[in-house]
Specification:
Number of domains: 2
CATH class of the largest domain: Alpha Beta
Order of helices and strands: EHEHEHEHEHHEHEHEHEHEHEEH
CATH topology of the largest domain: Rossmann fold
Radius of gyration: 21 Å
Number of helices: 12
Number of strands: 12
Strand order of the largest sheet: 8-7-6-9-10-11-12
Helix content: 25-40%
Shape: globular
Mean pLDDT: 97
Oligomer: single chain
CATH architecture of the largest domain: 3-Layer(aba) Sandwich
Structural class: alpha/beta
Length: 324
């Protein structure tokens, strides 16, 4: 059978699929593919390994109902109409777990760089502004003993908590739908209400999925409940925060700083004023951008493709209910 891969990814994926006896077509142009073009490209292919965050909506899925499997090169699947895929009996796979450490590293890095204004001060050197020692300028904050709040204490949140607890003995609180007994035992983590998460956290790190309940959750009202000395970190999805409200919260002193691996919209415009604020660090969605993580994602995505083409249960399904 034939598999279409919508972007260049580590070679291990195509190699595994070919070794399983299938043909691979890989899109190599460095551009986003419009959805109607994506539909045409998927024709004649039984498997689709989607690497972009194109909205794979009902229109796309109905036009691609011949697919035996849709494999995502991501953990998140908010860009896919899962209900439509399930109705069409298309199994959807994703890549959980393999990028937890790298994404937590990114969140930890952002926390550190924001706390010491590192990105802003780095740029100031290039502007020729490092010419006078001022002992009361450019002061950051220390993290030891502070409170880390986590929205969505899953695998990535667990790794972030482990780093913060180990490095800075931070108190860990979290807000989840359910409890996380493993984190409570390992870090003495405390499950709190969302309101308490906001008003108790010195660093609030977001690791929740984007859905109807979390979209725009961090808005002006939420930021007003946070400490004026708090740092907001988002390495999940940009849609969880309102960017205009975040800018106002930072410039108005409602919160102290922010670190973003994801933006709203994404990609971020080069003239976005957030990029020039001293207490802000922004990177271009690099949470999983390590050799190890991306290779692992490619391997898992290929495993999902191969299983789907063989008519077997996907090892990492998003919609396992289709097997009932």
């Amino acid at each position: 059978m034939k598999v279409f891969i919508s972007r260049l990814i580590p070679e291990i994926a195509a190699t595994m699929i070919r070794e399983a006896g299938h043909d691979v077509t890989q899109f190599v142009e460095r551009r986003d593919i419009p959805i109607d073009e994506m539909i045409e490209l998927c024709k004649g292919h039984e498997g689709f390994l989607n690497v972009s965050h194109n909205k794979l909506d009902k229109h796309f899925l109905e036009a691609s109902s011949h697919l035996k499997v849709l494999s995502l090169f991501s953990v998140g699947y908010d860009h896919v109409d899962i209900a439509a895929a399930t109705k069409l009996k298309i199994p959807v796979g994703h890549t959980p777990g393999v990028l937890s450490a790298s994404t937590a590293d990114t969140a930890f890095m952002l926390m550190l760089t924001v706390s010491r204004k590192a990105f802003y001060l780095h740029k100031s050197i290039g502007k020729g502004e490092w010419n006078y020692y001022d002992p009361i300028a450019n002061l950051g904050m220390e993290l030891t003993g502070k409170t880390l709040g986590i929205l969505g204490l899953g695998k990535i949140g667990f790794e972030m908590a482990k780093r913060c607890k180990g490095a800075y003995d931070m108190k860990v609180i979290y807000h989840n739908r359910g409890t996380n007994p493993e984190a409570e035992k390992a870090f003495d983590a405390e499950r709190v209400s969302f309101a308490d998460l906001l008003n108790q956290s010195d660093v609030l790190s977001v690791h929740s999925s984007l859905n109807s309940e979390t979209a725009g959750l961090f808005n002006a009202a939420a930021f007003k409940q946070m400490k004026p000395t708090s740092i907001f970190i988002n390495t999940s999805r940009g849609g969880l925060h309102n960017e205009a409200d975040l800018l106002n919260a930072l410039t108005g002193g409602t919160i102290w700083g922010a670190g973003l691996d994801v933006t709203n919209p994404e990609p971020m415009n080069a003239d976005n004023p957030l990029l020039n604020l001293p207490n802000v660090a922004i990177v271009p969605h690099i949470g999983s951008a390590t050799i190890e993580a991306r290779t692992g994602m490619a391997r898992i995505a290929a495993m999902n493709i191969i299983a789907g083409l063989n008519g077997e249960r996907l090892p990492y399904p998003v919609n396992p209910e289709i097997y009932k």
